[in-house]
From TrEMBL:
Keyword Nuclease: no
Pfam families: CoA_trans
Record InterPro entries: 3-oxoacid_CoA-transf_B (IPR012791), CoA_trans_fam_I (IPR004165), NagB/RpiA_transferase-like (IPR037171)
Highest taxon above the source species: Bacteria
Record Gene3D superfamilies: Glutaconate Coenzyme A-transferase
Keywords: Transferase
Designated name of the protein: 3-oxoacid CoA-transferase subunit B
Family listed: Belongs to the 3-oxoacid CoA-transferase subunit B family.
Keyword NAD: no
Species in which this protein is naturally found: Sporosarcina saromensis
Length: 213
């Protein structure tokens, strides 16, 4: 397993630790899809915006069923199928308890850019805008830097932001941040990371939480 894959699994496992109550959870494309591997609680019901509640990431996947990222998935006992209009109605109506999304960039107010890169063709925004508006809690999972080493946690996003809503939490392979009053608060260092690592690789301003004192 490469260092990038190790980082992604570390991030996904930490995000899974936030899902402790009975809830409907939507997993975005990329790192968020790994979160399901670390959930054994039957009270967590995974939702996909193309019309399935009760997604299973188990080995018994059905090649005829896909999630919003077009990856094959399975269905849990009691799963429900519906059209995408009903699925987005669930999101917009506030019936998704938590959305875990990937991000290209995050600004120091906790707003994310995850749907467009200027000059590049991308399929579309998918459900990200709706989830940022409708989900009760939004967690972002992303590597701390790009492949070139540039910080993804920036003073201001250079890509188009997905929504004016700030997310609730950001998890990288180096740190966990909560967004409080539109400010990033560093609440936790990930295994092997130091405060100096985080400071060196974070362009955005942030507050050190009391738990780090």
């Amino acid at each position: 397993m490469s260092s990038i894959e190790n980082a992604q699994e570390l991030i996904a496992k930490r995000a899974a630790g936030e899902l402790t109550d009975s809830s409907v959870v939507n997993l975005g494309i990329g790192i968020p899809t790994f979160v399901a591997k670390y959930i054994e609680d039957d009270r967590i019901h995974f939702h996909t915006e193309n019309g399935l509640l009760g997604v299973s990431e188990a080995a018994e996947i059905d090649p005829n069923l896909v999630n919003a990222g077009k990856l094959p998935v399975g269905e849990r006992i009691g799963a429900a199928f519906f059209d995408s209009a009903a699925s987005f109605g669930m999101i917009r109506g506030g019936h998704v308890d938590c959305a875990i999304l990937g991000a290209l960039q995050v600004d120091e107010k906790g707003r994310i850019a995850n749907w467009a890169i200027p000059g590049k063709n991308i399929i579309g925004v998918g459900g990200a805008m709706d989830l940022l508006v409708g989900a009760k809690k939004v967690i972002v999972t992303t590597t701390h830097t790009t492949k070139d080493g540039a910080s993804k946690l920036m003073k201001a996003c250079t890509f188009p932001i997905t929504s004016t809503r700030s997310v609730d939490m950001i998890i990288t392979e180096l740190a966990v941040f909560k967004v409080v009053d539109r400010q990033l608060v560093l609440t936790e260092l990930m295994p092997g990371a130091t405060l100096d690592d985080v400071k060196m690789k974070t362009d955005a301003s942030f507050i050190e939480g009391s738990c780090l004192a």
